[in-house]
Each structure stands twice: as C-alpha cells, then as structure tokens.
Specification:
single chain, about 325 residues, alpha+beta, five-stranded antiparallel β-sheet, 10 helices, about 15% strand, globular, binds adenosine-5'-diphosphate, binds the ligand N[C@@H](CCOP(=O)(O)O)C(=O)O, transferase, kinase
Amino acid sequence: MAVFTAVTLDDLNQWIKQFPLGQARALKGIASGIENSNFFLTTERGEYVLTIFENLDFDQLPFYLQLMRHLARRGIPVPDPVPNEHGDLVVPLHGKPAAVVTKLEGASQMDPQPVHCAEAGTMLARMHLAAHDFPLQQPNLRGLDWWLETAPKVMPFLSPENAQLLSSEIAFQQAFAGTDTYRQLAHGPVHADLFRNNVMFVGDKLTGCFDFYFAGCDTWLFDVAVTVNDWCIDQQSGKLDTARLSALLDAYHAVRPFTDADRAAWQTMLRAAALRFWLSRLYDLHLPREAELLTPHDPTHFERILRDRVEHAAQELPA
Ligand SMILES: Nc1ncnc2c1ncn2[C@@H]1O[C@H](COP(=O)(O)OP(=O)(O)O)[C@@H](O)[C@H]1O
Ligand SMILES: N[C@@H](CCOP(=O)(O)O)C(=O)O
C-alpha cells in the first residue's frame, strides 16, 4: 500500500476550499506507486487525483507541474494540475507539498501489442515537440552526474562481474557524452520514465500518461530508448521484440523524424537507458530511503537488458 501520509475526507473539508472544485465527496488511497501518496478524489466538480509528495520539496515541484500544465494546454493527454485561488499548483497538506490533478480514464496495458506500442510512440513524439518551448530548465536528475555519484555507493553490494559491468558501462557512456554525435542529438524536456504502468488505454486507444516526477531535460533519443526498453521486450529475457519495436519507432518517426545523429547514437542510448534503471533499482534495493519502496523493483531485470544491449545490436532506427 503506497499511502505514506494518511488523509481523511474531514482533513480536506477546509483545505479543498482554496480550489474551484466544490466540496470533497470521496477519497480513496491508491495502492500502486512507490514514490508518493496518491488518492482518487471525487468532488462536486468531478474526478481528480490528489498527490502528496514524499520525496520532493516545494522548490523542486514547479518544473514537473508546470510541464504537465504546458503539455495539457498543447493537447497532450496528461494530468492537468488544478491551480488554487492564488494560482499555485503546489500547496501544503499535512506539512508536505501536495497537488490536485485531473484524472485520466482507462487502465495500463501491461501486455502491449504493436498497436499499443505505436500509440505510445506517437504520443512520445508529440510530447517532445510540444515540450520544446517549455521555458523552465531542469536537468535529468537521474542522468550521467547521478550515475557517477551513485555507482560508488552500490559497488560494495555487487559481485565482481557486476561491478565490472557497471564501471565499464559508465566509462563508456561518459566517453560518449563527450562526442559530437551526442552534442548533435535533439534535446529538451523528456518524461524519462514512460513505462507501461505510466500510460493509460481504453481499448487500444491511448488516453494519456502520467508520473512526470522523473522528467528533466535530456536527449529525446534517451526517452525513446527508456520507452522501448520497457514496451518492446520479452519480459523474461529482456530481448527486443521486432514487431513491437518497429511499431513504436515507425510511429515516433512519422511525427518526429529521427536524424543521422539519432541513428548513430541508437545502440549506445539503449544501453544508457538500461543502465539508468539498473542503477536506480540497485540503489533503491541496497540503500532504501524511509517511506519508500515497500516492494523494491528487481534490478536483475535491467542487468539482463543491459547485457543484451551490449552483446546484441538492436534493429536500426527508421531512415
Ligand atoms: N492522473 C491520474 N489519473 C488516473 N490515475 C492516476 C493518475 N495519477 C496516478 N494515477 C494512479 O495512481 C497510481 C500511482 O501513481 P504514480 O504516479 O505511479 O505513483 P508514484 O509516483 O508513487 O510511483 C498509478 O498507477 C495510477 O493507477
Ligand atoms: N519505472 C521505474 C521506477 C519508477 O516507478 P514509477 O511507479 O514511479 O513509474 C522502474 O521500473 O524502475
């Protein structure tokens, strides 16, 4: 149960008055999720999601919530934060930052077919283009700097083979980050965690995506690689599935054509995306923070994916 901060309907009686939402009618804790306390909130005006942020503070949240607002205004189906009477998107609740956002319809598709991967690819490309003129800046906080800082902390827990894989992969990625190819990659605000559980469908139609709390400025190709490494694989082996991969890449390419630099960086970026989640899962498993990760995600899944991407070249990006 991922509700770390308890909230009751009574708690909301006064608090909700600052929003143009009418009275709160029902509140239900959401069991899934590993970072924040989430609730489905029914008010006189409709259905919303209330999030209490357990690990992010007031200064860090405007980037995420303003980005969601920016995207929603450009027609990207993402939760739209509701401003209070002063225009604030983040307000305190029980002393922690909290926000109310619109609720998306549908459910996640955890066994995606090519049709679902194509929908995800289209939305991802539309999102990259729509976010391009977003004025706030924040780096991907789970990027290269974080890898360099975090790897030494998890090293003591690793087997010699895994320690070797981690240090050689970080060195490889660090070298790549200094190349002209890397510098030529298109970049901007990216979701950076567009896994299947963060996207909703009604039937085969994508209805939206949420969980922007790992978003930051990074290369668009990194975001594509993160998405592919979750949507287009055999979940047991981590190997890429050709039909789903083609569907996602072709759909993305139809909206935001891949460049020569993207094509040159593709294999490396698939490895970077695998490394990012291998490392965060290792960190969360071995060095858990308080009020987090009741069920840590399995790092070996991304270790398998990383080894596969190092050993086997993926199909090329469409030209
Ligand atoms: N805007 C939304 N609309 C509908 N459901 C949502 C929305 N935001 C969150 N959820 C639900 O809450 C769950 C947990 O949200 P998530 O953002 O993944 O939490 P966490 O950040 O704690 O990992 C999701 O799996 C989804 O079912
Ligand atoms: N997608 C990441 C962890 C982030 O979890 P989320 O529930 O916030 O999407 C992983 O699988 O390691």
